[in-house]
Amino acid sequence: MLLMFAVMVFKINQSMATGIAYSLSEADISAIAHDILLPSFILAAFLTFGIAWLAHVIFNRPFIKRLSVSKASIASIITAFVIGCSLQMPIIFAMDLIHRAGVAPELFDKYAKIMEPLTKNQDIVLQILAIGIVGPILEEVIFRGLIFHQLRKNVPLIYAVIIQSVLFGISHLNIIQGTYAFLIGILLTLSFVWSRSLLLPIVMHMGMNLSGIFMSEYGDYIDNTTTFAILVFSILLAIAGTVYLYSRSKDTAKDIAV
Fold first, then answer.
1. How far apart are CA 212 and CA 225, in angstroms?
2. What rounded mean pLDDT belongs to the chain?
3. Are the C-beta atoms of residues 75 and 195 closer than 8 Å to each other?
4. Tens digit of pLDDT for each residue in 77-91?
5. Residue 1: Cβ-neighbour burial (10 angstroms; 0-12, 13-18, 19+)
6. DSSP of 75-136, one letter per residue?
7. Angle, helix 105-119 to helix 26-58, in steps of 10 degrees
8. CB within 8 A of 39, min separation 6: which ones?
9. Cα 152 to chain center, whole Å?
10. CA distances from residue 99 to 12, 95, 104, 106, 222 in whole angstroms, order as listed
């Protein structure tokens, strides 16, 4: 991003020096914005994480301990990742059904316009890094690590789960994505409650986003029969995985009773 900015400044200075008027067209600006979108997202994520850490240092709060990044079994981590991957197809299917039914077409158009710059003509490595890895880590640190932690100390569990899930949905800034983000936020939070480790919602979130990247890149090449088979298998996997994580919890009954 800094290199691109330097090149732009160089060209402006060069044109001014030679007496040639230099201007950026709307297409140029759009292209530059597209190219720096994901790098800017990654930079913003690191800055946000750094600010949160610094605030805890200033107020003498244990940042990492507060996040509850405790150990989790390999089986639970793999299961959480598989659940995340499995959630993508049911969400796509449900959204497609609603869209085909003609419900709120303007909302779907807005959703498409928001999502398009993140994946269209973007470098796949940057997508994986920004959307598949950095994004989930940052969002889980904020919502399940910090916000839920604070809510859990002040309100009953059920309210803490719902409130932070609502905030998680609102943070996506559009109704379509915000709706399913709210529902996914509940599952992510429950995985955190059941495991006592932020690692599980992080890898579950990663699985969902990475499978979304895969579908945006290669979904058009999958025929209808295969798509339906993947959908059914994904639903079964998500259910089985969730039941497994629930069964691994030793203190679930005590938490939900609070």
1. 19
2. 84
3. no
4. 999 999 999 999 999
5. middle
6. HHHHHHHHHHHHHHHHHHHHHHHHHHTTSSHHHHHHHHHHHHHHHTT--HHHHIIIIIIIHH
7. 80
8. 1, 126, 130
9. 22
10. 46, 6, 8, 10, 20
Burial 210-238 (b: 16+ CB within 10 A, else e): bbbbbbbeeeeeeeeeeeeebeeebeebb
Alpha-helical (H) ranges within 101-223 are 105-119, 124-127, 135-140, 148-154, 157-170, 175-195, 199-218
The per-residue pLDDT for range 51-104, each reduced to its tens digit, is 988 888 888 887 777 777 778 889 999 999 999 999 999 999 999 999 999 998
| pTM assigned to the model | 0.82
The answer to whether the beta carbons of residues 188 and 204 sit under 8 Å apart is yes
By mean pLDDT, which of 16-25, 35-44, 118-127 is the weakest? 16-25
pLDDT in tens, 141-200: 999 999 998 899 999 999 999 999 999 999 998 999 999 999 999 999 999 999 989 999
Amino acid at 187: L
Q: Which two tokens stand for residue 18?
A: 């030679």
Q: Which tokens go with 223?
A: 């025929």
